[in-house]
Amino acid sequence: MKTTQTATQVIPILGDPVAQVATPRLWNEVFHARGQDAVCVPIDLPSAGLDPFLSWVREARNVPGFLTTVPHKASLALACDELSATARLLGVVNTVRLGEGGALIGEMFDGHGMLDAIEQSGATLAGARLVICGAGAAGGAIALEAANRHAEEIALIDADPERASALAEKVRSAARLRVTTEMPDGADILVNASPAGSPGAAPPPFVEALIAGARCVADALTDPEETALLKAARLHGIPAVAGKEMAACQAERMRAFLGLEQRN
């Protein structure tokens, strides 16, 4: 985004690498459309540069906070002065806000973004049975937020059964609902929060009967935009939520957290 202003709010996004991240382009399109004096800037930052960056950002007067992707999510969670309950339980953040005195306040928005998008499709989380493929940070955040929205049951599926079991224990410790690590015969909402279905990878292990019986199918992948899972859902007339829809909902939450959403 071009600007002639000197007080531009700068929102860095950290990664190593970061060239593949679409967030700066998407956020800057939003700022430009609004005429908002803000810019999102990618920072290709190795782990050795994280401490110097944090020292700088605590003193910066026009940086309301920053975003992060791999490999810094866990390190930044340890560096934050305050964490949300989800970020604390999972040990990761993807958004950090600068508070009073340069305090770092961390949050993880993957769960909010996915479930906001699912609810916008018309699906109801309260009382729902979910299957989540992927027991990483995104799958964990989605599971915890589903529990917050009163889901009835969650099945966590992962290529690494031990990782699925460890996440299931964390979710059980935080919420009163049934959490399993076995693929059920039926479910209301299916979510892929894993690399399954990305170029060169096999699709997530949802059989056709499970897809056909669902009320909503969602995929966090953005490449490809229309995954095999989403295509299968649409063939059965099932509402399908794409990764770009999750990303848009998540971005709105992130900008609000950083104080960048304009109020009417």
TrEMBL record:
One of its GO terms (molecular function) is NADP binding. Keywords: Amino-acid biosynthesis, Aromatic amino acid biosynthesis, Oxidoreductase. The keyword Amino-acid biosynthesis applies. GO terms for cellular component: cytosol. InterPro entries: Aminoacid_DH-like_N_sf, NAD(P)-bd_dom_sf, Shikimate_DH-bd_N, Shikimate_DH_fam. One of its GO terms (biological process) is aromatic amino acid family biosynthetic process. Pathway: Metabolic intermediate biosynthesis; chorismate biosynthesis; chorismate from D-erythrose 4-phosphate and phosphoenolpyruvate: step 4/7. The keyword Amino-acid biosynthesis applies. Residues 13-96 form the Shikimate dehydrogenase substrate binding N-terminal domain. This is Shikimate dehydrogenase. It comes from Alloyangia mangrovi.
